[in-house]
Amino acid sequence: MAHAGLVLDKDQFNCSICLDVLKDPVTIPCGHSYCSGCIRNYWDQDDYLGIFVCPQCRQNFNPRPLLARNTMLADVVDKFKKTGLQEAVSQSFAEADDVECDVCTGRKNKAVKSCLVCLASYCDVHLQPHYESAAFKKHKLVSASKRLQETICARHDKLLEVYCRTDKQCICYLCLTDEHRGHDTVLAETEIQQRQKQLDDMKQNSQLKIHQREKEAQDLRQAIFSLIRSARAASEESDAVFTELIRSIELKRFEVRELIKAQEKTAVSQAEQLLEKIQKEIAELKKNKAELDKLSHSDDQIHFLQSCQSLLAPPMLSALPSVSVDPGLTFGPVMTAVSDFKGLLQEVCQGGFVSIYERVRDVVIVGPQSPAVQLDTTQPTDGALSVQMEATEVIPPTGLDQSPVNLFNPLLNPGPSAPTFNFSPFGSKFSTGARQRHMQRRAHPRRK
């Protein structure tokens, strides 16, 4: 393939998550390919969100896409590995940030190793004599570096192979007989091994902290998911309770309205019956009075005397029940009782809402901030590495815990003074200040 003029970049066959050659490659809907295990683990971390993102183009997918093996890409990668093309293409030309081979002429290849004895860098082709010739067996090879001159003593032009713990710098053997005479010195390799051991301890400590934080993050995600689910259930249940309460109030309103109508009908019916009886008595009295008027104007004296003897006594008035003749007779006392019920219900709702707000405010995931954790790892003072790791104070995000929180309704913006909130359960607003004023009841007159 290389002889045919095909130029391949090994990065084209790398997974952008693990940065290694693709293993069991799969392709997601946006067209990018990843290792099957890498993309599954990457999406498992966001499974609780329900939104899955491509690590490269950041395109969102919902629901989670099904993964299918990219057979063609898998075959290409297998051939890539079998033919050794990965090593062949590594013989690429040096880019701007790469170390150039000091032996190549014309356009230089990328160097893979540097020799501390030759003080030169070599590509794979020109490095072969260091592996094959006995003359280069004692040369020390390191990873390609542009800083070869820094490994040479500027004063004696010798390799820096000794470390002075007193002055904390690398020196050559000739420096031991000069300005570093009597200092605490060791071979640079010995010091590197000791430093590497300390770095390994630090890495292990950091890995433990990473695991701890990852577990805490997972627990926090689970707490967020549980709280969201609980909040949704609580909202639905509270809606059902308040709907039932509203239905009960509507029923009481209907009952009071029907009660007033029934009382109106009964009172009017009784009054109309009494009015009819009174009107009948008035008609009889008027008839008797008309007869008396007619008799009093009669000129026939004999007829007058005979009629007077047969004249009946006027009818007696029947006893009537007490009748209220107050022109201002209304259902005013009823409205007073309704107003008293309204005020009492508002007070009960007011105290109940305060209790609800306080309990809502108590549902938190993140509690009070713990004291800062400090880790101090200090090694012996003989030129060893001293490391101090201190956890910095966590600064809360902007807008969180920066001002007094409303004690009764955390959803309202806190004011500059004591927390207040307004609500109007039945059309009238109540402004509250201290908690005692919330629970204080007004005296309502009760009709006996």
Automatic annotation (TrEMBL):
SMART domains: BBOX, RING. Residues 148-188 form the B box-type domain. InterPro entries: E3_ubiq-ligase_TRIM/RNF, TRIM8/14/16/25/29/45/65_CC, Znf_B-box, Znf_RING, Znf_RING/FYVE/PHD, Znf_RING_CS. Residues 261-298 form a coiled coil. PROSITE patterns: ZF_BBOX, ZF_RING_1, ZF_RING_2. Keywords: Coiled coil, Metal-binding, Zinc, Zinc-finger. Residues 15-58 form the RING-type domain. GO terms for cellular component: cytoplasm. Residues 435-448 have a biased composition (Basic residues). GO terms for molecular function: zinc ion binding. It comes from the Eukaryota. PANTHER family: B-BOX DOMAIN CONTAINING, E3 UBIQUITIN_ISG15 LIGASE TRIM25-RELATED. This is FinTRIM family, member 67. The lineage of its organism: Eukaryota, Metazoa, Chordata, Craniata, Vertebrata.
